[in-house]
Specification:
Helix content: 55-70%
Shape: elongated
Number of strands: 0
Number of helices: 16
Strand content: under 5%
Largest sheet: none
Structural class: mainly alpha
Radius of gyration: 40 Å
Oligomer: single chain
């Protein structure tokens, strides 16, 4: 059979006469084929050169924002401005009322005489608060509240209370004045002055870190109140002497000045300090289950302030002998007791700094000698003075801020240790540590240098120089530099 007539088997290819051989299907095998990948073009990376981290100096303070952005009315500056504007308006009103009551000339004389004890009292309270100074706005608020708002409230409230006493008790006008001075004036005035401490306690609780803060804030409010009140009393006395033509030695003005300015300039601060101590105890007390007991110390302090104030007013209306006896037997010892308590509390603040900063020294945030240096007022002053002398005001400001942040850090740790409610302890601690670290390069060497002894301990000369001990003649004292690494030849601190 020819190829043309051969039946097709289905295994032939067209144009091919030979049949294909039947083969088994091929076994699938995995063959690793090269995968085509996109060609990556090399990117030239710049060679990183080590860059020194800039050291933050006092001229370029760190930017650290902890408070989120607020609305217009929630702004601290707006609220502070509105508050002090209201206090200034109260001051203008009270001074206008006093001038209208006593006249322009007596008002000016009373103003000059009343301002004399104010600098001494302010210096005493600011010295007491120098270990951990609070914000200046709190100081100004306390003084302005006492001098403006408290006196304005006291003038109208005393007048209204005096009318109630006169209508409730039948007697002579002098007896009504006596009862009003003993009961109405203490209630009104101690409440008005204590309101400043109450407002700071409610809205600035963090400012009450020890008993010192309560004494200082209440004393400043009372100092402002006494200043305005003395203008009224001294101006009234000047007007009476002018009308009567009294001599200087026998004048009412001299007697009023001697009693209110020379003998008892501390009377109002003494009374109101009872209220401040009560609020400070409540702010620093241990947390307990019965929260209502925290209001017992402020209430007791307020009542004690009224009792002292009323007793003093009552005895001041008696004979001069009784007045002098009460002054020597009651007022001076009470004032001495409060002064002792304030100084003890101030020393306790320094002890707290030395004790609770050791934790951060052990963790490496502070140098080991720093807690003792920060707990000494003389070392603090020396560090600031020498830094200002050698490196200027900006460096001294950095050292001052460093000391302040370290002090508040110690008080924060002390409050947490005794169990006081500090919900934001971690955030506040991190904030203070950041501020310390950013100023460490300036402040730490200054504090360490100031804490070193300036003189070597005394050693007696040896009987045979050269054998043992120092030479018989003392060697010259070496120069003391502000700190190691920045010596200045020929200059001694």
């Amino acid at each position: 059979m020819s190829a043309a007539t051969r039946p097709s088997t289905g295994t032939e290819l067209p144009g091919r006469t030979e049949p294909l051989k039947q083969t088994e299907p091929p076994v699938e095998t995995q063959v690793d084929l090269p995968v085509e990948r996109p060609v990556e073009t090399p990117v030239e990376t710049p060679v990183e050169t080590p860059v020194e981290r800039p050291v933050e100096t006092p001229e370029s303070p760190p930017h650290w924002h902890y408070i989120p952005r607020r609305t217009f009315w929630e702004s601290k500056g707006v609220r502070t401005g509105a508050l002090f504007t209201a206090l200034a308006l109260c001051g203008v009103i009270i001074l206008a009322l006093v001038r209208q009551h006593i006249g322009t000339e007596p008002f000016l004389v009373g103003l000059l005489l009343a301002i004399l004890p104010v600098p001494l009292l302010l210096w005493a309270f600011l010295w007491l608060d120098h270990v951990a100074p609070g914000p200046w706005r709190n100081v100004v608020f306390a003084i302005a509240w006492g001098a403006c708002a408290a006196t304005l409230v006291a003038i109208f409230a005393n007048e209204y209370g005096q009318k109630l006493v006169s209508s409730a008790f039948s007697g002579t006008p002098s007896q009504s004045d006596h009862w009003g001075a003993m009961f109405v004036a203490p209630l009104v005035e101690e409440t008005a002055k204590g309101t400043a401490v109450l407002l700071l306690f409610v809205f600035r609780r963090r400012c009450f870190e020890s008993i010192v803060d309560g004494i200082v804030l209440s004393g400043l409010a009372a100092t402002g109140f006494a200043f305005t009140e003395n203008i009224l009393y001294l101006g009234t006395a000047v007007g009476e002497d002018r009308d009567l033509g009294s001599s200087v030695l026998g004048s009412t003005t001299l007697a009023t000045f001697f009693v209110r300015v020379l003998m008892t300039p501390f009377a109002h601060p003494l009374f109101t300090s009872m209220t401040g101590i009560g609020f400070a105890i409540a702010a620093t007390a241990r947390p307990g289950r019965k929260w209502r007991w925290r209001w017992v110390p402020p209430l007791v302090g307020w009542l004690l302030a009224m009792v002292l104030h009323g007793s003093w007013n009552g005895f001041s209306l008696t004979s001069p002998g009784t007045f002098l006896t009460i002054y020597l037997a009651v007022m001076l010892p009470a004032c001495g007791l409060v002064v002792w308590l304030a100084i003890w509390a101030r020393s306790n603040e320094l002890r707290t700094i030395r004790t609770h900063l050791t934790v951060y020294a052990a963790a490496g945030w502070l140098a080991l000698p720093e807690p003792s240096a920060l707990g000494s007022m003389s070392v603090r002053a020396t560090a600031r003075r020498e830094t200002r002398r050698f490196y200027g005001e900006a460096a001294a400001r950095a050292v001052r801020d460093y000391i302040g942040f370290a002090t508040h850090l110690a008080f924060l740790r002390a409050a947490a240790t005794r169990g006081a409610p500090t919900a934001d302890f971690a955030a506040r601690e991190a904030e203070l540590l950041h501020h310390l670290w950013s100023r460490k390069s300036w402040a730490q060497p200054a504090l360490l240098s100031a804490s070193r002894p300036t003189r070597s301990p005394y050693l007696p000369p040896s009987p045979r120089p050269g054998q043992w001990g120092p030479a018989a003649s003392p060697a010259p004292r070496p120069a003391v530099y502000p700190w190691a690494g920045a010596p200045r030849e020929g200059k001694h601190p």
